[in-house]
Amino acid sequence: MRLGVINSDDSLLPFPNYGGGAIATRNIISRLPKFFEVTYFPPVRLLDEVYDPSTRDALVSTLRGLERGNIHVPQSLIEFFESRFFKLRLKERISEYSSLMEKEAGSVDYLFDPEYFHFNDRRRYLPLDYRLSDVFALSRRSGKRAFVEIMGLSDLQHNWLFEPIVHYVKYSPFLRPGGLFHAARFDIITRVYAHNLKKEMFAGVFALSWGSLYNLGLDHCAKCGVPNPALAIDANLLNYRKRAEEKEDSVVFFARLVMQKGLFELPFIFKSVLKRTETKLVVIGRFFSDRDERRFFDLLERCGVRDRVIWKGYLTGAPLFEEVSRSRVLVYPSHSDSFLLRDYGKPGRGNPGCGLQYTGPLQRLCEATRREVRERVRQRSNGRAGRAPAEGSRL
């Protein structure tokens, strides 16, 4: 089968793209050639991100390098960036490039987007269908049906209008009014995306848990499902495990330093921790706006915990694993996650973790896990003395 991959998040390309979602997307795309003939379509958003010859050359080099991983990039699209890109005005680029993509899409059987979302609100010059997502526009214009995987789109429940606002007010009483507007706008846009998934152009929809589908009202959708891949943990993480006596008296938080990851609740959580024990908080990550950075450190001062907090900045690889494994607890009050790589890595690093009862996907996954554990305990209790746990008991 010939599969056309188009990722609006451009996770394969040489532009900054942080977070577990981007890592998961790259892992998915890199493995597809084992099962399909893969053709990769660079997304339309690149027409705004390539702004000088050096970024253009880096892009072209990356696209040609994909061939070594058995991922084919149409030569006509590469030549467009090499020879035509800087000769055209922006609207002309969009028109010519989208026409080339639609023509090349005729050679594939299906389209696939490993992270269906990415509303391009700031790119108002794009046609409306491309502002929604590249796979939606390309499927609509080429007539090729698409498979998609949903991640960030389904982080919050949308069972009734403006439900995300109630969520953020409940967990973030210090949220700026602009954040409430963002939550309301996100709710409306998400409903548009979920409605589009029911259209005939989408042949199948994959999610990371049934909770993701429930959040979008798609849990009874016939073409929607949840893959069941094997759970894989990087064995190298075991090298960073430390015995209890080797650990420091610290708690750690690492993520993108944005509101959605619980950044502004963190000072108040740590203040409560200090009422019970003497420790320090290690914060690892990158701020994405000066305003968020100022607000975070202002909250630390307001809570009186500034001298107990160490900000390490952005770490990755061995330095990150070493720093996290030294801590006793991982604290992670995130509101927005659908696939937590850090949670799956906790057993390898030897870190217990605590956080909010995660939004839909993990909340429902945890409920299913508790039911399964109770059932296994009950089964093991058969033939033994004593009673199995009652149905409503906690494990």
Can you describe this structure?
The chain is of the alpha/beta class and 395 residues long. It is built from 15 helices and twelve strands. The chain has helices at 20-31, 46-49, 53-65, 75-84, 90-104, 128-132, 134-142, 163-171, 177-197, 210-215, 266-274, 290-303, 317-326, 341-349, 360-381; strands at 2-5, 37-40, 71-72, 110-113, 146-150, 202-207, 224-225, 250-254, 280-284, 309-313, 329-331, 353-354. It has a seven-stranded parallel β-sheet with strand order 3-2-1-4-5-6-7. Strands 10-9-8-11-12 form a five-stranded parallel β-sheet, covered by helices on one side. Strand 11, helix 14 (341-349) and strand 12 (353-354) form a beta-alpha-beta unit. Residues 383-395 have low confidence and may be disordered.
